[in-house]
Amino acid sequence: xxxxxxxxxxxxxxxxxxxxxxxxxxxxxxxxxxxxxxxxxxxxxxxxxxxxxxxxxxxxxxxxxxxxxxxxxxxxxxxxxxxxxxxxxxxxxxxxxxxxxxxxxxxxxxxxxxxxxxxxxxxxxxxxxxxxxxxxxxxxxxxxxxxxxxxxxxxxxxxxxxxxxxxxxxxxx
Length: 173
Known about the structure:
This is DUF1648 domain-containing protein. The chain crosses the membrane at residues 21-44, 64-84, 118-139, 145-166. The protein contains four helices and two strands, in the order αββααα. By secondary structure, it is mainly alpha-helical. The model has no long low-confidence stretch (mean pLDDT 90).
C-alpha cells in the first residue's frame, strides 16, 4: 500500500488545532528568522568575502566559504520549514511506532503534528542562529556561540522527539 493511500483514519485539522504556545513559537521563530535575513542584508557590504562556513564539534571554525553560503543557509532553512509545514498538515501519513486505530488516532495525530510543528520552528531558529553566528565571527565582533550551538541542535530536535515517543507509548497503553 502506498503512503498516500493510507487506510489510517483521517481527522480534520480543525480537531487538531494548535495550542497558544505553538502559535507563539511559530510567530517568534518567524520573527527571529526574518530578523536574521534583515541583519544579513544590512551587513552584506560590510561582510568579508570569506565567512565561517563550517564548525567543528567544539565550535571552532574549520572551513571558510563565500558569504553567499549564508544565503544558501537561509534558503535551506526556509525549504525545511516549508516542507515540514506541509508535512504537519497530513498526520495520517506520518510514521508511528504504534498502530493507529480509530480510538487513538486523534491523540496520536495531535502528538505527531505538535512534534513536527515544534521541530520546524526550532530548525528555523537554529538556521537563523547559525547565520548570525557566522556573521558575528566574520565581522570580528566576537567568537560566536561556539560550543553552545551543537547542544542546542541536539536538545532542540532530540528532546521533543523523545518526549513525543513517550507520549505515543502512553496513548498506546
